[in-house]
């Protein structure tokens, strides 16, 4: 006789669930745990507990094994006013932790315990996903910048970081070589309209078209102004290989120094502060 799904669930509950059905992997980092919850919920914006007045708390699902009952129970947890709050969601009985988390989030949403976080009215983003992308684009010390700086340092070059080449001009370069008068900008593909990776937005298309065009116009103005004052501007895209980009910058800096007078470019470069 073929065993029904109901019979299988009843049989499954007659024995203690395996650790893989509820227990998180050992040594998971905070970032990994958050990513696991995001996948199960359908995104970080789907893990919102409304606190009223447009405020939200980011919740998570905790799975607990009750050995005597041989049951796995799911609880919704979040922080509010400095205290951890918890609410029972229900029992789950899948064979994997990922499946049980997904089921628990569906149960919490069906019960109205969680909601979808809305984009703040003050934000330019058209969705929580695009807002997350924009928030990830930091103004300085981005990963591409750090990789480029490391590659330049290995070549014996010394530089200044996030500095105005011309103090009175409100334009900050990512990497500056004062003696060689070289300013390097590492442009983000999203904000500066990279021809290889930028994709026009489907929502608020006209707004984003104007926004990116404005950034590009400002970039062109910055380059022209610095060059008028005797600076050499090198613009790189964040997707470029750091080693190749460093070689390009190195060549420009050395050529500039060699054209300024006596002394080897290498010895003069090493004296520049970082």
TrEMBL record:
Keywords: DNA damage, DNA repair, Endonuclease, Hydrolase, Nuclease. This is Very short patch repair endonuclease. NCBIfam families: vsr. It comes from Streptomyces thermocarboxydovorans. The keyword Cytoplasm does not apply. Residues 1-45 are annotated as: Disordered. Belongs to the Vsr family. Residues 1-17 have a biased composition (Basic and acidic residues). Pfam families: Vsr. Gene3D superfamilies: VSR Endonuclease.
